[in-house]
Design a protein that fits this description.
5-stranded mixed beta sheet; zinc; Alanyl-tRNA editing protein; Ala-tRNA-synth_IIc_core; metal-binding; alpha+beta; tRNA_SAD; elongated
């Protein structure tokens, strides 16, 4: 049985060990040691990675009480090796996991909700609770959680007896057989957990709750802690600075500047739509009453304006009114309309000839295709003459 050094010292990064077993499985090997600081996957936390000598460990798992280090190369049984953890990854995971205990403990105390789902991903932590939490309440929990971090509270590990466990009020997601390991953050949380944690809450650095959304009758909360919270802050700060420069606005008022830009865009879009409407009305009016099969090519018209243009043409012309929107390089959207003809055969013919997609009702079809203006004009005229 492997001696679990991570329980003696969660901050141990290097250790000597002897290889006790090495078994091939598919395209990798499973290596067992007499002692290890590598934590195997469990308790919602992924297995550690690192090196055994020069051999990379890409994952660690526990099966039937044995801890197996997954490698791409075999190691000789009886060989002495130096184990080295990917400490940056391990420490980040401990920051996230300890942060999750703080938040889950606070929510359990304040609302009485249980943490019914926990995933410590490589990008963020998600926690599922069996009750509703508003964004305002989440902000209050985040503030309280960071007060615990700033208090640098010692995190305690204990192994209570069955008698002590029977009277201990603690959180647990599953039924546990054998010795139960309890992780306690005084006055905040008492929880059964097999994973390594930071020694004091101050090592977490910062807890940021980034989102809350409804999930299976309760809520899912997203968490970033420690290095991940810092990285998230830097990325968002960089974005705000970039937007600040683009808008010539101070960083603190970027949101106000964006809102003004948004309103100005709405105003200009409205003006453009009004001008486009006037343009198509004038173009339609310039077509003589009774003109057969008018064909128009436009660089850029929105969908509503395009349909209105075809309707105007159909009302004063005979045959099928054809409108293409786009250019030879990027392709065209099309709308065909008629008060008297079935537009679908023309749609089908052009789709087949120019690799298009689209359809509709007899009186109007729309879709997209690729081709040049000259090719499309010729194809339409040829079809309508046939």
């Amino acid at each position: 049985m492997t001696d679990r050094l991570y329980y003696e010292d969660s901050h141990l990064t290097e250790f000597p060990a002897v290889v006790t077993a090495c078994e091939q499985e598919k395209d990798f090997w499973k290596v067992a040691l007499d002692q290890t600081a590598f934590f195997p996957e469990g308790g919602g936390q992924a297995g550690d990675t690192g090196y055994l000598g020069d051999v990379e460990v890409f994952d660690t798992h526990e099966k039937n009480g044995e801890i197996w280090h997954y490698t791409r190369q075999p190691l000789e049984v009886g060989a002495e090796v130096k184990g080295v953890l990917d400490w940056e990854k391990r420490f980040s995971r401990m920051q996230q996991h300890s942060g999750e205990h703080i938040v889950s403990g606070l929510i359990h105390t304040r609302f009485g909700y249980d943490n019914v789902g926990f995933h410590l991903g490589e990008e963020e932590v998600t926690m599922d609770f069996n009750g509703p939490i508003t964004k305002k309440e989440l902000l209050e929990v985040e503030t309280a959680a960071n007060q615990v971090v700033f208090g640098n509270v010692p995190i305690q590990i204990s192994y209570p007896s069955k008698e002590e466990l029977a009277v201990l009020d603690y959180r647990s997601k599953i039924e546990i057989e054998g010795q139960v390991r309890i992780v306690t953050i005084p006055d905040i949380d008492v929880c059964a957990c097999c994973a390594p944690h930071v020694n004091t809450t101050g090592e977490i650095g910062l807890i940021k709750l980034t989102n809350v959304q409804s999930h299976r009758g309760g809520v899912r909360v997203n968490l970033l802690a420690g290095d991940r919270a810092l990285r998230d802050y830097r990325e968002k700060e960089s974005s705000v600075k970039a937007v600040s420069v683009l808008l010539s606005a101070k960083e603190a008022v970027v949101a106000d500047a964006v809102e003004r830009l948004k309103q100005e865009n709405f105003r200009l879009t409205g003006q453009l739509m009004a001008l486009s409407k006037t343009l198509i009305q004038n173009k339609a009016a310039s077509v003589a009453e009774g003109t057969a099969n008018p064909i128009f090519f436009e660089d850029n018209l929105d969908a509503d304006t395009s349909r209105e243009f075809v309707n105007l043409l159909s009302a004063r012309c005979s045959g099928i009114a054809c409108l293409f929107i786009g250019n030879d390089e990027s392709g065209y959207r099309y709308i065909f309309g008629s008060k008297t003809e079935d537009t679908r055969p023309l749609c089908k013919a052009l789709n087949g000839q120019f690799g298009g997609k689209g359809g509709g009702k007899p009186e109007m079809v729309q879709g997209s295709l690729s081709g040049t203006q000259e090719e499309l004009m010729g194809a339409v005229e040829t079809f309508l003459r046939s």
